[in-house]
């Protein structure tokens, strides 16, 4: 049995987080149907992350990584093997097709993908644009504004 979480108090005290809260609510309702291939999500720094996927049985050419807006899609499709005379008595290495989707936060970008020894490593970084970074806002008082207005009025009188 899964407990439900009421996000109503958060809606009352936050602005602009409705998309994230809706995603959390939806994630709690959708059962995970497939857990293959196994993967780890690692936070390697303040704004740096890594996803490691164990894709044994697949080659580098069998994998595709795409990023569409805030979704990272990793697909694996094994190329058909030529007919061989070998007869498998047991086939335990999974080489099946898969599609794994990851929802990414705003401003997340894939910076690198590396495949070695059956492990696919995807490096991600949050790159916040300068316009979105915090900036200090100067506070002025009404007396400061009045003092700044006096020279402007005097300059307009002299020009006339």
UniProtKB/TrEMBL annotation:
PANTHER family with a match to the protein in the record: PTHR47062, SMALL HEAT SHOCK PROTEIN IBPA (PTHR47062:SF1)
Pfam (any one): HSP20
Segments for region (Disordered): 139-160
Keywords recorded for this protein, A-Z: Stress response
CDD domains: ACD_IbpA-B_like
Taxon lineage: Bacteria, Pseudomonadati, Pseudomonadota, Alphaproteobacteria, Acetobacterales
Residue ranges of domain SHSP in the record: 30-142
Top-level taxonomic group: Bacteria
Similarity comment: Belongs to the small heat shock protein (HSP20) family.
Name by which UniProt lists this protein: Hsp20 family protein
Xref: Gene3D superfamilies: 2.60.40.790
Database matches in InterPro entries: A-crystallin/Hsp20_dom, ACD_IbpA/B, HSP20-like_chaperone
